[in-house]
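Lecture notes, continued. The same structure-token format from the folding unit now serves as the input rather than the output. Read the line below as a description of shape only.
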């Protein structure tokens, strides 16, 4: 019995630790990338985010010194605008978002928000100013309403419903027998990837941060769901300074600026039409994706006919 209770106790402890750790999706992202070397500097002040202008200035970064990941990246996201980062897998796109959250620090160069170096401000205040819609959302074993409310506990019922409406998940929720009180997660109703992402969007709308990071899902959603998610993301991005980490191209067409990152260097920048006219890396990526989409559609039509 002693032998059995030991692992059970241990598992209980781990369970409690994990449960405690799952404070918030942003927190979870934080825990996954926790870096104990990064601490607040003595006398660090809270970030004063007003216009929320984000700037990367000649940022060099490597996880390991022998393998540079970012090699002099500079760009800015003007107040309320959307900048999308595209590029091949492993180019360093998600690394940019990790640096913005200050899970890591650049080896040289700096990142500022409204002119304040993010390395010099209190980390809590930095992370409170940034909302994250992650690739894969993990829901708490609680009601769907609880999962949205996590964005801001003080929010009223009306505000919560408004956030759900903007995220286009309201009708789905209202169609459930228990509505907002429906249990979800491991022990409750299982939601699809697209539904979970819309819950995350509603939560972020409720949190209302001035800066937004959208780490787009790599997994292909069907085109109807993709359109719905895109509409919801466009709404949440409206009026916020937004950085989109795009793993597919369909979502970046309307971005104010698109940066093409390749092996840690920005090789092209511009808006969608301008980049297509250039006929460079972006145009090639776009054509390849169009061909892949067309092939997928043709396959689907053939399957439907069978
Ligand atoms: P994808 O589109 O596939 O998600 P990405 O452009 O977002 O790729 P990053 O996640 O930024 O790429 O990774 C850039 C490079 O850094 C990759 O080669 C990756 O293997 C490496 N890398 C990422 N995280 C770490 C880490 N914690 N330690 C060491 N290397 C890492």
């Amino acid at each position: 019995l002693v032998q059995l209770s030991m692992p059970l106790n241990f598992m209980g402890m781990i369970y409690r630790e994990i449960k405690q750790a799952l404070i918030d999706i942003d927190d979870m992202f934080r825990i996954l990338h926790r870096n104990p070397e990064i601490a607040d500097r003595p006398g660090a002040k809270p970030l004063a985010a007003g216009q929320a202008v984000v700037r990367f200035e000649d940022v060099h970064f490597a996880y390991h010194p022998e393998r540079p990941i970012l090699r002099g990246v500079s760009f800015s996201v003007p107040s309320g605008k959307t900048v999308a980062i595209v590029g091949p897998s492993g180019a360093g796109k998600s690394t940019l978002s990790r640096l913005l959250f200050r899970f890591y620090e650049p080896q040289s160069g700096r990142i500022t928000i409204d002119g304040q170096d993010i390395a010099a401000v209190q980390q809590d205040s930095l992370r409170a100013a940034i909302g994250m819609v992650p690739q894969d959302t993990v829901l708490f074993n609680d009601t769907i309403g609880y999962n949205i409310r996590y964005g801001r506990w003080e929010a009223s019922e009306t505000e919560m419903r408004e956030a759900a409406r903007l995220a286009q998940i309201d009708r789905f929720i209202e169609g459930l027998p228990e509505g907002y009180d429906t249990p979800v997660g491991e022990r409750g109703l299982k939601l699809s990837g697209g539904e979970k992402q819309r819950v995350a969007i509603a939560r972020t709308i409720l949190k209302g941060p001035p800066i937004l990071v959208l780490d787009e899902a790599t997994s292909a959603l069907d085109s109807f769901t993709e359109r719905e998610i895109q509409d919801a993301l466009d709404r949440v991005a409206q009026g916020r300074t937004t950085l989109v980490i795009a793993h597919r191209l369909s979502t970046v067409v309307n971005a104010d600026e698109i940066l093409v990152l390749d092996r840690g260097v920005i090789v092209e920048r511009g808006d969608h039409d301008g980049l297509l006219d250039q006929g460079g890396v972006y145009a090639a990526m776009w054509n390849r994706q169009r061909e892949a989409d067309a092939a997928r559609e043709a396959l689907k039509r053939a399957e439907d006919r069978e």
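Point for the exam: The CA atoms of residues 178 and 266 lie 49 Å apart.
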